């Protein structure tokens, strides 16, 4: 028996089903098939009667107060056989360990906004670190949902294209306070770094002279170390066996041979198909997912809007020749096709805005490095690019278009898939497909590490040594990204005073 606390803080019990009769129902003690004997059965009945009283008391308290939703109420998942009224009463009264939470709105929009704003100002370290911050603050400290429910939401974010940590944050806000809570969570977590990236874009032109150019040079070199760290970490997680490692290598070679976004798309499609063939082994058991206030109709609307924008925007941009549509289309396609989030968006944005000449390679890598030193989602790099882009309105309007474009597809997909996710992810072929696609993501990012990151930043022995130092700081010493960026900027200034031969 679990230790009891209070009526508004019910105990957690494991979801064990009481012994059953030969007919399959929970019957009297005389017909129960149990080796425990009458004493154990009597003890069990006493426990169920106790929690039935607790359940009744909770309903009385809930009718007298307006705070009846202090904790998520979980369902006990059993087989298809019927359960007794006593068990149903207990299921209403207590959350069962390992169960899944029913949807109930429990918090206010303002609560969600302020919690996520604080995390948006302090969450350094990239998408993986953000997921750790969310778990520590919202699962362990505030107990908005259970660990298993949080893991389900993270799995969904990893499965979909788009920024995984932002999608998880959006989903947490949706679960806590409904649609407006989801919007509040997204804005609060995204705005701090977006505003800082726009400010950096406006101030980048001020980096003139020896010191300014040295800082920019150092930031481009730091980008080599940061992307290399991302490739290293993702390869260890997503390519743990020869089959997936081979998919990653083939994807990298394909992207290098077939330049542009088309090569990246083909690499992801080929990787997914290869996963269906070679990655079916090892499919793990999955559980039922947390419920959200999203209907199937709303899901179909969001999925349809996602597809319509993806199909219509390119010909519309070509027909109108309007820079704003061109800009929005480039960032929308990047957000719609990026699997893995975070650093994986780099090659897609490179193809959309750098290869087309909208920003220079130095501007691109400088902004990418600066984004590593800021809290919040890495996708706010789009605000920097939209501000500086020579296509579109530029400035704050360009930043707004770019941000909306890069985040919108991932959020539309999250809302659209939530009502159908459970049935899909139980299928072994779907899990195999995503294993192959994720392995191809590693190859795509490795290709981007070589070109343009390495080829642009490493022009001699000294920059290579500085990049290696930054990489060791990240991998071996686990130095925070913002500190490594500071080291790189200082190293870039030092490089300006070295003889030209080592640069």
TrEMBL record:
Annotated compartments: Cell membrane
Keywords: Cell membrane, Membrane, Transmembrane, Transmembrane helix
Region (Disordered): 1-29
Highest taxon, organism lineage: Bacteria
Main location (coarse class): membrane
Residues spanning the signal sequence: none
One Pfam family cited in the UniProt record for this chain: Chromate_transp
Entry GO terms, CC: plasma membrane
Alphabetized GO MF terms: chromate transmembrane transporter activity
Keyword hit for Ribonucleoprotein: no
Membrane topology designation: Multi-pass membrane protein
Cited InterPro entries: Chr_Tranpt_l_chain (IPR014047), Chromate_transpt (IPR003370)
Transmembrane intervals: 180-202, 214-235, 247-277, 297-318, 330-349, 396-420, 432-450, 456-475, 482-502
PANTHER family to which the protein is assigned, alphabetical: CHROMATE ION TRANSPORTER (EUROFUNG)
Similarity field: Belongs to the chromate ion transporter (CHR) (TC 2.A.51) family.
Protein name: Chromate efflux transporter
Species of origin: Cryobacterium lyxosi
């Amino acid at each position: 028996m679990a230790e009891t606390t209070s009526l508004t803080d019910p105990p957690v019990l494991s979801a064990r089903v009481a012994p059953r009769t030969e007919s399959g129902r929970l019957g009297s003690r005389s017909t129960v098939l149990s080796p425990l004997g009458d004493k154990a059965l009597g003890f069990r009945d006493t426990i169920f009667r106790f929690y039935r009283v607790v359940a009744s008391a909770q309903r009385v308290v809930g009718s007298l107060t307006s705070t009846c939703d202090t904790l998520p109420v979980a369902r006990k998942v059993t087989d298809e056989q019927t359960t007794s009224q006593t068990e149903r009463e207990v299921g209403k009264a207590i959350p069962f360990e390992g169960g899944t939470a029913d949807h109930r709105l429990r918090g206010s929009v303002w609560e969600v906004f302020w919690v996520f704003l604080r995390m948006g100002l302090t969450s350094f370290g990239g998408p993986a670190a953000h997921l750790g911050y969310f778990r520590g603050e919202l699962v362990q400290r505030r107990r908005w949902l259970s660990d298993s429910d949080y893991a389900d939401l993270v799995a969904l974010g990893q499965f979909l294209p788009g920024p995984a940590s932002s999608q998880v944050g959006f989903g947490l806000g949706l679960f806590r306070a409904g649609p407006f809570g989801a919007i509040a969570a997204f804005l609060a977590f995204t705005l701090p770094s977006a505003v800082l990236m726009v400010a950096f874009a406006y101030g980048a032109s001020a980096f003139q002279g020896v010191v300014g150019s040295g800082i920019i040079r150092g930031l481009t070199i730091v980008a080599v170390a940061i992307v290399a760290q991302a490739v290293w970490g993702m390869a260890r997680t997503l390519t743990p066996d020869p089959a997936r490692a081979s998919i990653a290598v083939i994807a990298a070679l394909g992207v290098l041979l077939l330049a542009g976004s088309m090569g990246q798309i083909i690499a992801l499609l080929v990787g997914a198909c290869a996963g269906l063939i070679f990655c079916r082994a090892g499919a793990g058991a999955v559980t039922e997912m947390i419920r959200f206030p999203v209907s199937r109709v709303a899901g179909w609307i969001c999925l349809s809007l996602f597809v319509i924008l993806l199909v219509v925007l390119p010909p519309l941009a070509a027909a109108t020749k309007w820079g704003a549509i061109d800009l929005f289309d480039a960032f929308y396609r990047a957000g719609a096709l990026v699997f893995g989030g975070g650093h994986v968006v780099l090659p897609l944005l490179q193809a959309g805005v750098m290869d087309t000449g909208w920003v220079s390679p130095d501007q691109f890598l400088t902004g990418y490095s600066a984004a590593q030193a800021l809290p919040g989602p890495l996708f706010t790099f789009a605000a920097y690019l939209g501000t500086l882009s020579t296509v579109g309105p530029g400035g704050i309007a360009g930043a707004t278009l770019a941000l909306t474009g890069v985040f919108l597809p991932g959020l539309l997909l999250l809302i659209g898939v939530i009502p159908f996710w459970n049935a899909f992810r139980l299928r072994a072929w779907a899990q195999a497909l995503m294993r192959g696609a994720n392995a191809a993501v590693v190859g795509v990012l490795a290709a981007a590490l070589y070109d343009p990151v390495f080829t642009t930043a490493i022009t001699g022995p000294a920059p290579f040594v500085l990049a290696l130092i930054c990489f060791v700081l990240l991998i071996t010493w686990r130095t925070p990204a913002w500190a490594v960026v500071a080291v790189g900027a200082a190293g870039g200034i030092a490089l300006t005073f070295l003889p030209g031969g080592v640069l």
